[in-house]
Amino acid sequence: MSQYRLPEFNENEQTPAQRWAVLAWAFAAGASDGARPSTEFARLGKFYVAGDIDLAMLSAEMDRLYFGHEYPPLVLVEEPGRVFPFAAEIEAMQKELATLPPKVPYLELDLSIPIRL
Prior knowledge:
Elements: H1 16-32, H2 39-50, H3 55-67, H4 87-98
């Protein structure tokens, strides 16, 4: 559980299965743009699916880590023996996405051709 506030979930995030669907969508949306989920994003995703943090907390932590926003860090501890719901699926998707070829733009403009108006 986060030390700052209780997580809040909308009607589409009430169960671990629903939260896994949200996280899987985020993985897929990022992959469609050539991104791969970082180890930290996957770790935070486990806590989100388990219901320990909500999307706002996850997003704030990612902003803190990658964009230098001055939010207090989340302190999330993985207790020994704790089983996270959908942890195997998160790991499998992360491995699968890592094998995808790099993004190829849909459209490439040949800028070597002179443009005449």
